[in-house]
């Protein structure tokens, strides 16, 4: 953004250690310089100095963080620079220069703060991505649990063909503990001396957890998976909406008031 003042707004946040935890928003809807200041001052370890040097045809902006509590590794903080073609509008020139410095800071902000800085737009996209990943994990868990419950109810025993963590097992909790801790796994299931097979891949779309299986298991797998297919869920949602409209009582039209 070198030709106009920076109109972006920023979010300062702390990232969670696990996808199941929420991001901690320190501040939202900040200007770039406000976001930098907020991130640096988090924990009280850093401050910042900035200078402006004016030359005949350009302005040079320098921005240097300084450590209030010197880092244990003794690193020198990097200075950031921006050169802007000089115009008669000094305020505009400074805004452009600071925008360039903000962009540089974003690329290396983790050097100075435990906080992350992103544009509000990028942060909103991040939250949307997290929500989608959580839904994938939820569907993975739902399908895997229902699948093991159905297999055990039908009298199957289950063998881990990938990691050999369990063999001919009917221990629901032990099987699920392994399944929900891996990215992919192949299982042999056995009943009445007949063996079948399936492959599960976690973390893709959720509803496609069961990637492949022998056809004889279709009678168990299809009723579990099909209601969760996105096109089936969309259709069910539209049908529920139509049913709700059809069952709602009609509102009688207002009677026209006849003047006396």
Rg for CA atoms: 30 Å
Number of helices: 6
The separation of the N and C termini measures 69 Å
- Given as residue ranges, the uncertain stretches (5+ residues, pLDDT < 50) are 248-260
The total tally of domains equals 2
What is the averaged pLDDT score?
85
Number of strands: 10
User: Hey, roughly how much beta strand do the residues contain?
Assistant: 25-35%
Main beta-sheet annotation:
4 strands, antiparallel
Bulk shape: elongated
The sequence of SSEs as H and E is: EEHEEEHEHEHEEEHH
The amount of helix comes to: 25-40%
What order do the strands of the largest sheet run in, or round the barrel if closed?
Answer: 7-8-9-10
Class per helix and strand makeup:
alpha+beta
Region (Disordered): 240-260
Q: Would you kindly provide a written description of the structure presented here, covering whatever features stand out?
A:
This protein has 260 residues and is α+β, with helices and mostly antiparallel strands. The protein has 2 domains: 10-114, no CATH class; 132-238, no CATH class. The chain is built from 6 helices and 10 strands; from the N terminus they run ββαβββαβαβαβββαα. It has helices at 32-41, 90-108, 120-153, 172-179, 218-225, 230-247, and strands at 10-14, 24-30, 46-54, 58-67, 80-85, 116-119, 157-160, 184-191, 194-201, 210-213. The strands form 3 sheets. The protein has a 4-stranded antiparallel beta sheet with strand order 7-8-9-10, with helices on one face. The protein has a 3-stranded antiparallel beta sheet with strand order 2-1-6. It has a 3-stranded antiparallel beta sheet with strand order 3-4-5, covered by helices on one side. The N and C termini lie far apart (69 Å). Mean pLDDT is 85; it is low at 248-260.
